[in-house]
Structures are given as structure tokens and as C-alpha cells.
């Protein structure tokens, strides 16, 4: 049985009592690019992320740096320069900070060009034993003081950030020792009286508390999923079981999310040791899957998996048994001597600041919430329908809804070809085995159309009665939202439509009111980014530099893509050439990204659990009757949570003419884009100042239900 190993800068602020204003203007909403005379702030960036794994073949430790660090470095450098700061790189991590000299170099705007697509870190990272000793930290402090640096941006894991916090906590003591030893003057010590630190977490294991995803995790998931997708066809052809080991010595995130994304049969993670005699249970599970007609079995194993006796579980055992940059700068700009060291984390679509040591103390390996399911029979029928243009992740949402619904005891019904299929009676039961392997498939396996209920409302209501449908899950884009509104409005005339409904946003356009993110948007962005990066890489191999222009398909009826291409081609003769790519429908299908697979899984699962509770509320006198506004909702991600919002309440926030929400949070990203592209004056709202938050532990229990 085959198995695969898948491992595969500093700020100086003016004294607090200084009357010199920071170049970052907070009056109004305009960033004025500072003049060189205001360069009184110094920023230094350290990357200390030198994660090692043993290469069994060569018996040599191999370093791994989290992909995405260069994007954080670039954003931090350019934001720092834009606000008038001098920006320094610290090469080779803490070792460069200790050694000083040429390891601490001035960064320029151009020095971070063309690095977004590069893996690892361009400023290097190295293991540093010297920084663990006080004499090493004394040398590091001396180097910083001599350059007037009192602010550090550290990108690394929990060990690196813990070291940074220790450095900060003993800063005053280090200054005193340096002054006493004659290494620095009293005036230098006074100018550097405090040290501000902000951290960004770089770890492919996603093993840091306080952030939904660390830098590098998404890229690691992409690599793993690529391997899983690549072997699926072979495995199905030969009816094999594949055991994949992924990184995760103490944290099982990669393994668990990979299992969700690929529909694995079994997963071993450090946080949840399997019960005794797991080998026997695993074999029974695999046999049962084969008896259901499955030709493929996938087992995911985290490298740190162990049994309840704390003995490692290896691939051989399983085989024998069966297997953040801009916000960091703002945090430093707003820091005071009393501000504790913080880490910039991702929560939903928001960058938040959390006390560094709170995260480190909780990190370590908080067990993942355990979900218990008890299968019962409910006599409830839930129909699932896809509406609008297809997109990656739709099938993952359907699969999750079907399987969670079956676990809840419901009968799940598949509606083919959108609202047309609901009107024409294209409705049939869908069972557990039918959705096997759907997570990694693009498009819509149920079929989808853009047509709204419209004149078919009466026929739809009749089929709801005919097929005894008790609730409806509508997965799609703006058409799904409009169709849901039409059904709710028609409740006044057709009592059959008084059933609970939920709309799950799924569209590459990300334009459904009530949700900051839609299923499919991440895959679309990934497709756009990869094609543009590949294009630019080829062009940058020449001596002529190139630029990139992105245009929305309906941005302007006169300034079309062809017009812009012709304009730049004509004006660039003899200076640069021009190429045009129209991505079109490529963004809709294709293989879903790990994010969309798991986002769809979460949305599908949560929708069924919500409907189960709502059906209990609406069950009266032996029948379902739901006519309240909160019985028909959009399930969306709002900032940091998945929330249900009544369809009717979202009408006021909808621009029906342009098919978009009136409030679009992502427009706030445009000023950041302009800043990083070196615009001289940028309109940007800086009235909201981020506050330090605290780590909150969460646990959850999900059970099956009965009605």
C-alpha cells in the first residue's frame, strides 16, 4: 500500500514629549505622502522562522519558511516608508540582530518589488542560539540603540515571538547594563528608553492561538490538496487506500482541514488520540466504505499523531492496520511605552491585535472541539438547490449539507437545474454515498440556472407540497438572494412557501448582501493571481520592467479592456509592450481552493443545523408553518462570525440596480493598494483605531436531533 510524505524591521519614534507630528495625518481621511524632512521614524523587520524537519533520506535537518512572509515584509516596508519612516531589514533573523553590521540594512521601495510570488523569505532566517543568552541580547540591544531603533516587527512562530517579548521585558535592564559598561551613552539610553514590538505569525502548522490562519498555512494546504487531487484518479482506478502524512508535530490543523477538504475516511491528529483498538475500527470503516461502492479510501495522518498511551502512530502502523503587514505598521505607529507586545492575527476578514503572551500561553496545543453525532430519524425533508452561475465550492456545501442532514435524521432532496428544476419536478432523494468526492469538484453537480421563480411560483408551491419539502437550502449568488426574496414575498399568496429557508452565498462576484465573503471568491482570486503572476514572471525575465492593470468586467462601458490594451500598446511603443488576458468563466469552475472547500463545508453544515432548530420552532399541530421574517435568512460571514440575517431585513442594504450590497467592506482595501503602489496622496479613513483584545477559549458540542 503506497503512502506519501507531504512536507513538503524596526521603527524609531520621536520622544513621547516631542511636539513633532507624525507624518500619518489623522485629521480627515487623507494620507499625505510625507516629505523627506519628516523621516524621523525608523522601522526594522525581523523574520525569525526557521522550522526544521528531519529528512529521513539524508538524515539532515531541512529548513522550512512559511510561504507568504515576503508579502508581509513588502507591505510592512512600503507602509512604513509611506508614513515617513526609515525602514531597515534584519537579515538572518535574530542572528543578524546580534551580529549587526551589514546584517541590518536600509530597505527601499524598490527592494521589495517582485517578491510577492516568492516562497521563503528574501531577508533570510537562521537558527540563533546567541539570542537565547543574555550576552547575545545585549549585543542586539546595542545594535538597535546605535541606530536609534526602538520598534521591532517580528515575523515568526511562538518561540520567536516569546523571545521578542522577553527582549522587550528586559529592555530597561539591558540599557542599564550597556550604559554601565560604556557601550552606549546616557543620552542614547534616554532616546531609546522603551521598545515597541508587534508580531505577525508565520507557521505552516497554523499552531498559534488567537488567529484563524497563520502566514503560510493556506499555501501549505494548497500543496497538500494538489497531492491529494493528483492521486485521486489513480487510487480510484486501482481501488487503493492512500495514507498521507502531513506536517503537524503538535497541531493537527493541516491534517484535519485536509481531511475535510478531500473527504477523507479517517484522520489522526495529536489533539485527539484514537480509542483503543483503533486498528480494528479503522478496518471496519474502510470495509464499510468499500461495500457502499467506494473505490477510494484516503487516510490523513499528522506527523505528531499518537495513541492514548502517547505512543506515536506512524504511516507504517496505519498501513499495516489497513493511514499580516499593514496592520503591523499601524500597531507600531499607535504604540506607547505602556502598550504590551501584541500579535497581529486574522479573525474572519478582520486583522485584530491580541496580547502576544496570552496567545503564546494558550497556544500550544489546545484540543480541537469534539463533535458527537447520534443518528435518528426525523421525518423531515430538506431540499437543496443551486441557483445562478456555478462556482468552486458549491459542491462542498451540498456535500456537507447532505451528510449533516442525514446525521440529523432528515431525508435530503436534490433539486436539479435551479428554480426551473423546482418548478418542473426535477427533485430526487440524495444519499450519503452520492456526494462522495464532491468536495474537490468545481462547478455544480446538481446543475444550476440563473432563472428566478417568477411566473413559476405557483408550480413551485405545488411541488413543495407534492414532494413534501419542509425546508429549503438555496446555494448561489445574487440570483439566489433575489429568488429567496421572491419566495418570501409570495408567502402571502401561497401558504406552501411558509417553510424555513436559508440562502448560502456562492459566487465569484462576492456580491450577496449579508455576507463579507462568498463561496467561490477565493478560488476566483487564486485563479486571477496565479495567471497574472505566471505572466509577469515570464515578462520580468527580460531587462524591461512591466506593470499590471486589473479591470472589472463592468467597470466602465467606454474604457473597455480592449480600449485600455490599444491605448497602452500605442503609447508604449519603443518603451514597453502590452498583453491582454480575459479570464472570463475560468474563474467559475476548476478545482476549489482549500479555503472554498472548507468554507463550503462549514456553510453547508451550519445551514442544516440552523434549519433543524428552526423546524422545531415552526412545528405546530403536526405541521410546519414558518411565516416570520427570521425563518428565511442569508447565512453569511460578517467580520468575524457566521451569522443568519433575515432576507427581508437586507433589502435596505441592497443596490438592486447594480446587483451589489450598498456597503462593500473591501473598498477599504483600495487605499492600501494605492499606498503600496506609491501614490502621492491617498484618501483613507483612519478614524478607527484598533484596540487590544483578549484571547477567548471556545468549545462546542453538536448532537443529532429528533422531531
TrEMBL record:
Localisation per UniProt entry: Cytoplasm
Start and end residues of each Phosphofructokinase domain: 66-319, 381-529, 533-610
UniProt-listed Enzyme Commission number(s): 2.7.1.11
Keyword Cytoplasm among record annotations: yes
Keywords: Cytoplasm, Glycolysis, Kinase, Magnesium, Metal-binding, Transferase
A GO-annotated cellular component: 6-phosphofructokinase complex
Pathway listed: Carbohydrate degradation; glycolysis; D-glyceraldehyde 3-phosphate and glycerone phosphate from D-glucose: step 3/4
Protein name per its UniProtKB record: 6-phosphofructokinase
Gene3D superfamilies membership: 3.40.50.450, Phosphofructokinase domain
Enzymatic reactions: beta-D-fructose 6-phosphate + ATP = beta-D-fructose 1,6-bisphosphate + ADP + H(+)
Record GO biological process: canonical glycolysis; fructose 1,6-bisphosphate metabolic process; fructose 6-phosphate metabolic process
Keyword Cytoplasm recorded: yes
Cofactor(s) recorded in Swiss-Prot or TrEMBL: Mg(2+)
Annotated PROSITE patterns: PHOSPHOFRUCTOKINASE (PS00433)
Any one GO molecular function term: ATP binding
Pfam families membership: PFK
Amino acid at each position: 500500500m503506497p503512502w506519501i510524505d507531504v512536507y513538503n524591521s524596526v521603527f524609531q519614534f520621536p520622544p513621547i514629549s516631542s511636539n513633532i507630528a507624525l507624518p500619518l495625518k489623522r485629521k480627515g481621511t487623507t494620507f499625505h505622502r510625507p516629505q523627506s524632512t519628516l523621516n524621523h521614524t525608523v522601522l526594522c523587520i525581523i523574520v525569525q522562522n526557521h522550522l526544521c524537519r528531519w529528512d529521513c533520506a539524508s538524515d539532515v535537518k531541512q529548513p522550512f519558511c512559511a510561504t507568504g512572509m515576503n508579502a508581509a515584509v513588502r507591505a510592512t516596508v512600503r507602509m512604513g516608508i509611506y508614513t515617513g519612516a526609515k525602514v531597515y531589514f534584519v537579515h538572518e533573523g535574530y542572528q543578524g540582530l546580534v551580529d549587526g553590521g551589514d546584517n541590518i540594512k536600509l530597505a527601499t521601495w524598490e527592494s521589495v518589488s517582485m517578491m510577492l510570488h516568492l516562497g521563503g523569505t528574501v531577508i533570510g532566517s537562521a537558527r540563533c542560539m546567541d539570542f537565547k543568552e543574555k550576552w547575545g541580547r545585549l549585543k542586539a540591544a546595542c545594535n538597535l540603540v546605535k541606530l536609534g531603533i526602538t520598534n521591532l516587527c517580528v515575523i515568526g512562530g511562538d518561540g520567536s515571538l516569546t523571545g521578542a517579548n522577553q527582549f522587550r521585558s528586559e529592555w530597561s535592564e539591558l540599557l542599564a547594563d550597556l550604559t554601565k559598561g560604556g557601550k552606549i551613552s546616557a543620552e542614547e539610553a534616554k532616546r531609546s528608553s522603551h521598545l515597541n514590538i508587534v508580531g505577525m505569525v508565520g507557521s505552516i502548522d497554523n499552531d498559534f492561538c488567537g488567529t484563524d490562519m497563520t502566514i503560510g498555512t493556506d499555501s501549505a494546504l494548497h500543496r497538500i490538496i494538489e497531492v491529494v487531487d493528483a492521486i485521486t484518479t489513480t487510487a480510484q482506478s486501482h481501488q487503493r487506500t492512500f495514507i498521507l502524512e502531513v506536517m503537524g508535530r503538535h497541531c493537527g490543523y493541516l491534517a484535519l482541514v485536509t481531511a475535510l477538504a478531500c473527504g477523507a475516511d479517517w484522520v489522526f491528529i495529536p489533539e485527539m488520540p484514537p480509542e483503543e483498538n483503533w486498528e480494528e475500527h479503522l478496518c471496519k470503516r474502510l470495509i464499510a466504505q468499500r461495500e457502499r461502492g467506494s473505490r477510494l479510501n484516503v487516510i490523513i495522518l499528522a506527523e505528531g499523531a499518537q495513541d492514548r498511551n502517547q505512543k506515536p502512530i506512524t504511516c507504517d502502523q496505519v498501513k499495516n492496520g489497513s493511514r499580516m503587514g499593514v496592520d503591523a505598521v499601524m500597531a507600531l505607529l499607535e504604540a506607547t511605552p505602556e502598550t504590551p507586545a501584541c500579535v497581529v492575527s486574522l479573525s474572519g476578514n478582520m486583522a485584530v491585535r491580541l496580547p502576544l503572551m496570552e496567545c503564546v500561553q494558550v497556544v500550544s496545543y489546545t484540543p480541537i472541539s469534539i463533535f458527537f453525532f447520534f443518528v435518528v430519524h426525523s421525518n423531515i425533508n430538506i431540499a437543496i438547490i443551486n441557483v445562478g452561475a456555478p462556482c468552486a465550492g458549491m459542491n462542498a456545501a451540498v456535500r456537507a449539507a447532505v451528510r449533516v442532514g442525514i446525521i440529523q435524521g432528515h431525508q435530503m432532496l436534490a433539486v436539479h437545474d435551479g428554480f426551473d428544476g423546482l418548478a418542473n419536478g426535477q427533485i430526487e432523494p440524495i444519499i450519503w454515498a452520492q456526494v462522495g468526492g464532491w468536495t474537490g469538484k468545481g462547478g455544480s453537480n446538481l446543475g444550476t440556472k440563473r432563472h428566478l421563480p417568477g411566473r413559476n411560483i405557483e408550480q413551485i408551491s405545488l411541488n413543495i407540497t407534492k414532494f413534501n419539502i419542509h425546508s429549503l437550502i438555496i446555494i448561489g449568488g445574487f440570483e439566489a438572494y433575489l429568488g429567496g426574496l421572491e419566495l418570501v414575498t409570495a408567502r402571502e399568496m401561497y401558504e406552501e412557501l411558509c417553510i424555513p429557508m436559508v440562502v448560502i452565498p456562492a459566487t465569484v462576484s462576492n456580491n450577496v448582501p449579508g455576507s463579507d465573503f462568498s463561496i467561490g471568491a477565493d478560488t476566483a482570486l487564486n485563479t486571477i493571481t496565479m495567471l497574472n503572476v505566471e505572466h509577469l514572471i515570464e515578462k520580468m525575465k527580460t531587462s524591461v520592467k512591466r506593470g499590471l492593470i486589473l479591470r472589472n468586467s463592468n467597470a466602465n462601458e467606454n474604457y473597455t479592456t480592449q480600449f485600455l490594451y490599444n491605448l497602452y500598446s500605442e503609447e508604449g511603443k519603443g518603451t514597453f509592450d502590452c498583453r491582454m488576458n480575459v479570464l472570463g468563466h475560468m474563474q467559475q469552475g476548476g478545482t476549489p481552493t482549500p479555503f472554498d472547500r472548507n468554507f463550503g463545508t462549514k456553510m453547508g453544515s451550519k445551514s442544516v443545523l440552523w434549519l433543524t432548530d428552526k423546524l422545531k420552532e415552526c412545528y405546530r399541530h403536526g405541521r410546519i408553518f414558518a411565516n416570520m421574517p427570521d425563518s428565511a435568512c442569508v447565512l453569511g460571514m460578517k467580520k468575524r462570525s457566521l451569522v443568519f440575517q433575515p432576507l427581508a431585513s437586507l433589502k435596505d442594504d441592497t443596490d438592486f440596480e447594480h446587483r451589489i450590497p450598498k456597503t462593500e467592506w473591501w473598498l477599504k482595501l483600495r487605499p492600501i493598494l494605492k499606498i503600496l503602489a506609491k501614490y502621492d496622496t491617498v484618501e483613507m479613513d483612519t478614524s478607527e483605531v484598533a484596540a487590544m483584545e483578549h484571547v477567548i477559549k471556545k468549545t462546542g458540542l453538536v448532537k443529532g436531533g429528533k422531531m
